[in-house]
């Protein structure tokens, strides 16, 4: 699932390509909207809301999309070859005289009245990259269920909107807590730092082509994707396990030395990798 900074960048690309322009092509390739034609309507804006995208058109219509795990919006110049995937993966095409936006593998796609946008995104907590960002409210939301594992609480978009698996793992590392530590067990001083830290990380990365949380050259992330390589701080092998109810893949990375709290035992394949890992890099 994309992170909030990725969605923010997608919204900016769509806005820069389409806003203020009149559509000369409108093609919805999902049964529910197969007869919809937005040709002739002017695109007003595209804005992000957490991990959701809202593209607004004159006449009071909004296209609500969500990338989920595999979705993508690609923007092409007139005459440019499309390279986002095979044609059967295209869900919607929006074209102007100069640019064409193509939505691939969009698992959430709905057209609604602009006045009804809250029906789609009103459940979300404060947006880490939005004008409604409110760190005090975000912290209060996280604390409503003190027994909930920290990693699961961070992924719950009703608490604060914009965190995915990468930032979940990186934030827990920076807080020195495992993602399985109950929210209520996180020391108060670290809990109070959490919203501001999350906000700074996403703000720092929203304009970067490569996400960076470490401040180190050639080492972009502290733990995410690093198992079983050594922790950048203590050299203990980083571990990985799924977190959640199993309905979705939630790869979660942590350092068993730098982060305190409960954690699942390493699986047999991971123990084998740790014993037979190559020279640390």
TrEMBL record:
<keyword id="KW-0479">Metal-binding</keyword>
<keyword id="KW-0511">Multifunctional enzyme</keyword>
<keyword id="KW-0456">Lyase</keyword>
<keyword id="KW-0863">Zinc-finger</keyword>
<keyword id="KW-0238">DNA-binding</keyword>
<dbReference type="Pfam" id="PF01149">
    <property type="entry name" value="Fapy_DNA_glyco"/>
</dbReference>
<keyword id="KW-0378">Hydrolase</keyword>
<dbReference type="InterPro" id="IPR015886">
    <property type="entry name" value="H2TH_FPG"/>
</dbReference>
<keyword id="KW-0326">Glycosidase</keyword>
<keyword id="KW-0234">DNA repair</keyword>
<feature type="region of interest" description="Disordered">
    <location>
        <begin position="256"/>
        <end position="281"/>
    </location>
</feature>
<dbReference type="InterPro" id="IPR000214">
    <property type="entry name" value="Znf_DNA_glyclase/AP_lyase"/>
</dbReference>
<dbReference type="InterPro" id="IPR044090">
    <property type="entry name" value="Nei2_N"/>
</dbReference>
<feature type="domain" description="Formamidopyrimidine-DNA glycosylase catalytic">
    <location>
        <begin position="2"/>
        <end position="130"/>
    </location>
</feature>
<dbReference type="InterPro" id="IPR010979">
    <property type="entry name" value="Ribosomal_uS13-like_H2TH"/>
</dbReference>
<protein>
    <recommendedName>
        <fullName>DNA-(apurinic or apyrimidinic site) lyase</fullName>
        <ecNumber>4.2.99.18</ecNumber>
    </recommendedName>
</protein>
<dbReference type="InterPro" id="IPR035937">
    <property type="entry name" value="FPG_N"/>
</dbReference>
<dbReference type="InterPro" id="IPR012319">
    <property type="entry name" value="FPG_cat"/>
</dbReference>
<keyword id="KW-0227">DNA damage</keyword>
<keyword id="KW-0862">Zinc</keyword>
<comment type="similarity">
    <text>Belongs to the FPG family.</text>
</comment>
<feature type="domain" description="FPG-type">
    <location>
        <begin position="222"/>
        <end position="260"/>
    </location>
</feature>
């Amino acid at each position: 699932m994309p992170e909030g900074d990725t969605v923010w960048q997608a919204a900016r690309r769509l806005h820069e390509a389409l806003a203020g322009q009149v559509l000369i092509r409108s093609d919805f390739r999902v049964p529910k909207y197969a007869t919809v034609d937005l040709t002739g309507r002017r695109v007003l804006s595209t804005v992000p809301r957490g991990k959701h995208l809202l593209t607004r058109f004159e006449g009071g219509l909004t296209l609500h999309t969500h990338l989920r795990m595999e979705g993508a919006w690609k923007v092409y110049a007139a005459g440019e070859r499309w390279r986002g995937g095979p044609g059967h993966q295209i869900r919607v095409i929006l074209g102007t005289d100069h640019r064409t936006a193509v939505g691939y593998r969009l698992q959430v796609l709905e057209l609604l009245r602009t006045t009804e946008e809250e029906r789609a995104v009103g459940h979300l907590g404060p947006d880490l990259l939005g004008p409604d960002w409110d760190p005090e409210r975000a912290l209060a939301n996280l604390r409503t269920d003190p027994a909930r594992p920290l990693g699961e609480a961070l992924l719950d978009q009703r608490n604060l909107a914009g965190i995915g698996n990468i930032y979940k793992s990186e934030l827990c590392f920076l807080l020195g807590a495992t993602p399985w530590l109950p929210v209520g067990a996180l020391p108060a001083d670290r809990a109070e730092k959490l919203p501001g830290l999350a906000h700074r990380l996403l703000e720092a990365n929203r304009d970067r082509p490569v996400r960076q949380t470490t401040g180190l050259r050639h080492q972009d992330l502290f733990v995410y994707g690093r198992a079983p390589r050594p922790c950048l701080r203590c050299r203990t092998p980083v571990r990985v396990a799924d977190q959640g109810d199993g309905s979705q893949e939630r790869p979660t990375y942590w350092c068993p030395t730098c982060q305190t709290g409960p954690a699942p035992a390493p699986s047999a394949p991971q123990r084998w990798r740790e014993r037979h890992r190559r020279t640390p890099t």
